[in-house]
């Protein structure tokens, strides 16, 4: 999406931060609106697994697209390392996002609910 607005620009870590917040905000809003509380431990684990799975699927799709247009000689063994590294990094960022960002976002929506009810 950024490539359409600003060709050649990359957001790097800030882009990942934006994606995590943009993904967690509607989830937290819906959860807080329906349950009026924070996620419990089991819900956090399920959310981390779900978000990581979706990130890995999207990245594997992009990797498959890239590999389908490139010659793959000598790339066969390295692909498993790339996939493992990608899964580990995605799981780390989703865990950090759910542990810290989701708590802040839920606090924001819970405070808004309290102000509305007061």
TrEMBL record:
Superkingdom of this protein's organism: Bacteria
Keywords, in A-Z order: Membrane, Transmembrane, Transmembrane helix
Chain segments annotated as transmembrane: 12-32, 44-66, 78-102
UniProt-recorded name of the protein: Uncharacterized protein
């Amino acid at each position: 999406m950024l490539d359409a607005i600003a060709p050649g620009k990359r957001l790097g870590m800030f882009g990942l931060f934006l994606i995590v917040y943009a993904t967690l905000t509607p989830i937290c809003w819906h959860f807080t609106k329906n349950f009026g509380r924070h996620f419990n431990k089991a819900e956090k684990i399920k959310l981390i697994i779900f978000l990581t799975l979706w990130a890995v699927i999207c990245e594997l799709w992009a990797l498959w697209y890239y590999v389908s247009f490139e010659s793959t000689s000598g790339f066969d063994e390295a692909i498993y390392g790339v996939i493992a590294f990608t899964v580990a990094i995605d799981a780390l960022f989703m865990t950090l996002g759910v542990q810290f960002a989701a708590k802040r976002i839920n606090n924001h929506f819970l405070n808004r609910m309290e102000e509305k009810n007061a």
